[in-house]
Sequence to fold (125 residues):
Amino acid sequence: MRREITRAREMRGRMSEAEVILWSRLKMLKARGFHIRRQAPFRGYYLDFVCYARRTVIEVDGSQHGTDAQIEHDTVRDAVLRRHGFTTLRFWGSDVRSDADWVMDQIIAALEAAPWTREPERAGA
Fold:
């Protein structure tokens, strides 16, 4: 578990431009009752952003996510998350950079629609 936490901290220091833009906005959702974590380890994966209480994962995808191999990997990963009760929202980094307001509107709508989980699952689960 210690290695996962160390790697997550390293990843937080190397976030993409789009992830930094989105993180600056997601932090403001705490005032609305949504606690978002970034680069959170979960079942061998690192989630770009996650709201455990709403079982919602937010991923910012770069161009590498358009390859067949990455699409297959993301499909398996999303299925694993779904089995644990999570919904995954995926946004292209270019959309975050060009229309962050639209991306945030989509995220807020999904978070508000998601049921609240009393006992959120944490990183080591």
